[in-house]
Structures are given as structure tokens and as C-alpha cells.
From TrEMBL, chain A:
Annotated PANTHER family: AMINO ACID ABC TRANSPORTER PERMEASE PROTEIN, BRANCHED-CHAIN AMINO ACID TRANSPORT SYSTEM PERMEASE PROTEIN LIVH
Lineage: superkingdom: Bacteria
Compartments in which it is found: Cell membrane
Pfam families, A to Z: BPD_transp_2
Family: Belongs to the binding-protein-dependent transport system permease family. LivHM subfamily.
The protein's name: Branched-chain amino acid ABC transporter permease
Provenance organism: Pseudooceanicola albus
GO-annotated biological processes: amino acid transport
Keywords: Amino-acid transport, Cell membrane, Membrane, Transmembrane, Transmembrane helix, Transport
Automatic annotation (TrEMBL), chain B:
Lineage, uppermost ranks: Bacteria, Pseudomonadati, Pseudomonadota, Alphaproteobacteria, Rhodobacterales
Gene Ontology MF terms: branched-chain amino acid transmembrane transporter activity
Keyword Transmembrane helix: yes
InterPro entries assigned: ABC_transp_permease, LivM-like
Domain of life: Bacteria
Classification via PROSITE patterns: PROKAR_LIPOPROTEIN
One Gene Ontology cellular component annotation held by this UniProt entry: plasma membrane
UniProt-recorded name of the protein: Branched-chain amino acid ABC transporter permease
Main location (coarse class): membrane
Keyword field contains Cell inner membrane: no
Length: 287, 332
């Protein structure tokens, strides 16, 4: 029974990891940029959430998500318009990545100096402790809710990209920027929109993670590595692959944790490296 | 050529005599600058000439350090005599891992190498034999005697000069040309007979070895090694930023970048009195600004302004200079 619970909790955690990777996959899919600062934006959103919930006590942390997502989306828009759009046309994809690497490092150290290195959690009150029993299994409400949110976000983004007008424009810009421009699309604006969307997803992930575990300004490194592993394992451009990859990583981490109490992300990283040997194109990647 | 040899001899003389004039604190700072230059130069060889951007190079820094600490404690031998291990162990591990790592390209390679470094860090942290999170002392530290700072300064200086001379010679050679051709166009390089894979493996292993050596030299005078410091991601951050600021793919870039880095560090910490990691914020901000405004780094700008061509590995056009492929006609 303990094992079933562990695996189920791994799946719930995996839903969260899926959201971590989703924003990163979106930016990579559209702009071919790996945003290394994604993890630090996740941590920054979590800090904003902690401050907001301290400022307005008594409000459910699930409601706090809304203003934080709005702030994160604004930050994403500004980040893309002010910084990233200047290097996005570089023919070397490493230039934009190194820029985000620089931004990531600056953000992390400013947060360290401002918020200190003490671990913080987002107090979710009764929600974080609430649990229920199904068929003799003891499950937490928050983890189940997290997976549900994750599935909704994956479905929603998939719908947005494949079924709507704006999704069509985004795909067109990604496929052929020059022709999209001829059709009256302003690529810079589309990129800013995509980054806003990506960081909004990062904010959701950041708050859900902060309700689950404590974090410090340096936690961004763990977050970005997991997010990156989700993207690579899931295969490029495959949204549902990313969710499955997140679940695989979540289950691996928690099962590893059962065997080996202070393994942290070790087994998740090892799973990732093992997959690189077996399937370099990811779970669902095309050959 | 004479000029280059003279500057080199002068640099060797300065490094050789410095311990006679400087106190231990200054020597320690000097050693740190030399080590920083070495790791940055090694990162630059890989990224700027080999076209492989690694974000996990702190792994080699830590592995080099641990190799010497473990061997010295086990064999009860002066750690400086065991420095070859700090090059050998990282190089061998790098060679074993490249078949896996090279499945990843470009940005994927960058983050994949970072994951790998994180795995090494976690493994060392969990090893009780290596002292876990708290780390382990260097029991043979006493063998180094009182002149430890002078000794490591000389070693670091020798290493820095060797890195400079060897990179210059290698990059001017046919191998270097082949390496750069792989960076510029892999398919074209392969089609004219350059062994792309072997070149990349070799340069990756050499880069790992150099960083490993630098790590051991830096860590030995602490008499203590801690995974959090030896495997700190900050090492790679410094390598990346210093090279980006100085000028990626130039031999002078890491020298200029290292000088700028230490100027920022002393300026922010002592000058402005801001402690902690603010100097890192300043370094990162300068790196971001450089990427936006001068993507090739500061050295190429300085070089063109001052008409310097000190360590360029470019080969002169063999024919008439005005027929050179990139010759620009004078404005009319």
C-alpha cells in the first residue's frame, strides 16, 4: 500500500514537474531558446506569492495565484521586449541562451541579497494538510489538485496553440518568421506574448511548489534542471510527452526517496542521463 | 614573434619574482587571478574554438581537487607532487562520458553537461568516505611548509603561462584549424576529412584536465575541500561571464576578462563597501550588457581601436594583402 501511495504521489508531483517544463517547452518550441532564467522566475513568483499572502492574510493561496500570474506575465512581456528580442535574430542559438544564463545569475544573487538564504514556504493553511481516503489509500488534497491543474493547463495550452487564431499566428511565426512578417505579424510582439504565457505557467508551478516544499533563492537551479529534463525527455514540441516525462521524473524521485532518504534529485537526473543513452530524441520525439 | 616571446619572458619573470615582493594575502589573490584565468581560458578553448558551450565545467574543478586530496591523504605524499592526477582523472572521466554527452547538441549539450555536474556534486555530497556535505581535510597539508602561498602561486603562474603558450601553438597548428572548422561548419569540416568527433573529444578532455588542475591548485592552500565550494556552479558562471566580457574565441579575451572581473570584485567589495554577492550581480550585469551591445566581447573592440594583434591565431593571407578575401576597399 505504501508503494502504491508513493507511486501515486510521484504521479501528482510529476504533474507539477510537467508544468515546470511546459513554459520552457513553449518558449523553446516557438523561439528555439532555452530560457535558463525560467527556474529563477519560478522562484521569484514564489517569493511574490509569499509576500502577497503575508500582506493579505486569510486569503486562500489558490486565489493568490491570480495576481502572481498577472505579475509574472508582465515580467515575461518586459523581459522579452526589453532584452531577449534584441538577440533573438542571432543565427547562433547559444547567444540568447547565454543571455538568459546571465539574467538568471543576476536574479538569483539579487534575490539572495534581498531575501536571504533561509528556506521559505508558502503557508497554504488547512489545504496543505487536508487529505482523504480512497480504497484504503491516504492521499493529500493539494497533490491531487496540483495534478488536476496541470492537466487543465496542458489541455488549455494545447487548445490555444492548435485551435485558436492566436495559436495559428504563433505557429506561423515560429515556422517562418519572414513570411509571418509579410502577413502583418510583428514577431517581437508574438515572442513577448509567448514569454508572458511561459512565465505565467512558471508562476503557477512556482506557487504550487512553494506550497509543497520550502525554497531558497538558489532553488532555481533545481527547478530549471527538472524543467529542462521534462522538455528533453518529453521530446521537442510534444506537450503531452512533457506531462508524461514529468510524471516519470516525479515517480522516479519519490520511489528513489523511499529507498534512499537523502537522494534528492539524484535518481531523476540519472533517469534523464539513462534516457539520453537509450533514446536521445525523447519519449515521443521523432527520429 | 620576438615581441611575443619577450612579453612571455617578462610575464614569467614577474611571476617568478612576485613571491619575493608580495605578502601572503597578495599572493593568495594573485594565485586566484591566475587560476581564474586558467579556467576561463580552458572554457574558452572549448566554447570559442571548439564550439561546445559547457555549463557544467565546475564538475572538473571539483573532481581535480578531490582527486589530489584523496590521493594525497591515502598515499601520504605532498599534494603538489600529485597534481598530474588533477589533470589525468578529469580527462579520463571526460573521455568516458563524451560518447553520452555528445549525443546532445548546442544548447542541449550546455544543459546536459550541467545535469552531469549536478550528479557529480550530489554523489560526492552523499559519500561518507569523502566526508559528505562537510567535506574533508588535507592531512598532508603540513608537508607544504610556510611558503605554501609562494608555491601555489608559482604553480598557478606556470600553469597560466603553459595554457597560454600551448593554446597559441595548438590553435596555430593544423589541429587547431581543424577544430575551428568544426566549430564553424561541422558538415563542411567532415567533408574535407576533419575527424569531427575525435577533435571534439580531445578538446573536451584537455579543457577538463586544465580546469581540474586549476581546481586542485586553488583548493590545496585551503587544506580543506567541501563539495559546496569545489562543485559550485559559480565557477562555471565566472568562466562564462569572463570569457563573454573579454571576448569569446580570442586568446586575449580571458586575460582581459579576468582583469575586469577582479577589478569589479575589488571595486564593489572594497570600493563601494558592498559585501556578499553584489560583485557577482555587477559581473552578471556587465556580461548581459556585453552580450547586448558588443556580442564579440571587449577585446576585439580594443584590438581594432589600438591596432593590436598580439596573440591572434589568424594566419596572414599568403598573397597580396589587397587581394585578401575580406579586404575592404578604401572609401572613395
Amino acid at each position: 500500500m505504501v508503494w502504491v501511495e508513493t507511486v501515486l504521489n510521484g504521479i501528482f508531483l510529476g504533474g507539477l514537474y510537467g508544468i515546470l517544463g511546459l513554459g520552457l517547452a513553449l518558449v523553446f518550441g516557438v523561439m528555439k531558446v532555452i530560457n535558463v532564467a525560467h527556474g529563477d522566475f519560478i522562484v521569484l513568483s514564489a517569493f511574490i506569492g509569499v509576500f502577497l499572502s503575508a500582506a493579505v492574510p486569510g486569503v486562500s493561496p489558490l486565489l493568490i495565484i491570480l495576481p502572481v500570474v498577472a505579475i509574472a506575465a508582465g515580467l515575461g512581456w518586459a523581459f522579452q521586449s526589453v532584452l531577449m528580442n534584441r538577440v533573438i535574430d542571432s543565427d547562433d542559438m547559444l547567444v540568447p541562451m547565454l543571455l538568459t544564463f546571465g539574467v538568471s545569475f543576476v536574479m538569483r544573487n539579487i534575490m539572495l541579497e534581498t531575501f536571504g538564504a533561509t528556506p521559505v514556504t508558502l503557508e497554504a493553511g488547512a489545504l496543505s494538510r487536508a487529505s482523504f481516503q480512497v480504497a484504503g489509500l491516504h492521499l493529500g488534497v493539494l497533490p491531487v489538485l496540483t495534478l488536476a491543474i496541470s492537466v487543465v493547463l496542458f489541455g488549455g495550452l494545447n487548445w490555444l496553440i492548435t485551435r485558436t487564431e492566436i495559436g495559428r499566428v504563433i505557429r506561423a511565426t515560429s515556422d517562418n518568421t519572414a513570411i509571418a512578417r509579410l502577413m502583418g505579424v510583428r514577431p517581437g510582439r508574438i515572442y513577448a506574448l509567448v514569454m508572458a504565457l511561459s512565465l505565467a505557467l512558471a508562476a503557477v508551478a512556482g506557487l504550487l511548489l512553494a506550497m509543497r516544499t520550502s525554497f531558497t533563492p538558489s532553488s532555481g537551479i533545481d527547478r530549471i534542471l527538472i524543467a529542462f529534463e521534462v522538455v528533453v525527455l518529453g521530446g521537442l514540441g510534444s506537450f503531452w510527452g512533457a506531462l508524461l516525462a514529468g510524471i516519470a521524473l516525479g515517480v522516479t524521485q519519490l520511489v528513489g526517496f523511499r529507498f534512499d532518504a537523502n537522494s534528492g534529485l539524484l535518481y531523476a537526473h540519472l533517469l534523464f542521463l539513462a534516457f539520453l543513452i537509450a533514446r536521445p530524441n525523447g519519449l515521443f520525439g521523432s527520429k | 614573434m620576438i615581441l611575443r616571446i619577450l612579453t612571455l619572458l617578462l610575464a614569467a619573470l614577474v611571476i617568478g619574482c612576485a613571491p619575493l615582493l608580495l605578502d601572503d594575502g597578495q599572493l593568495s589573490l594573485g594565485m586566484e587571478m591566475l587560476v581564474t584565468f586558467v579556467i576561463c581560458a580552458m572554457w574558452n578553448v572549448l566554447a570559442g574554438y571548439g564550439g561546445l558551450v559547457s555549463l557544467g565545467h565546475q564538475a572538473w574543478f571539483g573532481i581535480g581537487g578531490y582527486a589530489v586530496f584523496i590521493a594525497s591523504n591515502a598515499l601520504n605524499v605532498n599534494p603538489l607532487w600529485l597534481l598530474p592526477l588533477a589533470a589525468l582523472v578529469p580527462a579520463l572521466i571526460a573521455l568516458v562520458l563524451t560518447p553520452l554527452l555528445f549525443r546532445l547538441k548546442d544548447a542541449y549539450f550546455a544543459i546536459g553537461s550541467w545535469v552531469l555536474a549536478e550528479v557529480f556534486y550530489i554523489l560526492v555530497q552523499r559519500s561518507d568516505a569523502l566526508g559528505g556535505i562537510t567535506g574533508m581535510p588535507l592531512f598532508t597539508g603540513g608537508m607544504l611548509g610556510a611558503s605554501i602561498y609562494a608555491q601555489v602561486f608559482w604553480v598557478a603562474g606556470g600553469l597560466a603561462l603553459a595554457v597560454l603558450v600551448l593554446s597559441y601553438l595548438v590553435l596555430r597548428s593544423g589541429f587547431g584549424l581543424g577544430l575551428m572548422s568544426v566549430r564553424d561548419n561541422e558538415v563542411a569540416a567532415a567533408s574535407i576529412g576533419v575527424n569531427v568527433r575525435r577533435n571534439r573529444r580531445l578538446v573536451y578532455a584537455v579543457s577538463a584536465a586544465g580546469v581540474g588542475l586549476a581546481g586542485a591548485v586553488y583548493l590545496i592552500p585551503n587544506y580543506f575541500i567541501q563539495p559546496g565550494i569545489a562543485f559550485s556552479a559559480d565557477w562555471t558562471v565566472i568562466m562564462t561571464f569572463v570569457v563573454v566580457i573579454g571576448g569569446i574565441g580570442t586568446l586575449e579575451g580571458p586575460i582581459l576578462g579576468t582583469l575586469i572581473y577582479f577589478a569589479i570584485r575589488q571595486g564593489v567589495t572594497d570600493g563601494l563597501g558592498l559585501s556578499g554577492s553584489w560583485y557577482l550581480v555587477a559581473l552578471g550585469a556587465l556580461a548581459v550588457a556585453t552580450m547586448l551591445m558588443a556580442p564579440k566581447g571587449l577585446w576585439p573592440i580594443l584590438r581594432d581601436r589600438l591596432h593590436l594583434d598580439w596573440l591572434s591565431v589568424r594566419r596572414p593571407w599568403p598573397g597580396r594583402p589587397d587581394r585578401a578575401p575580406h579586404h575592404q576597399a578604401p572609401a572613395e
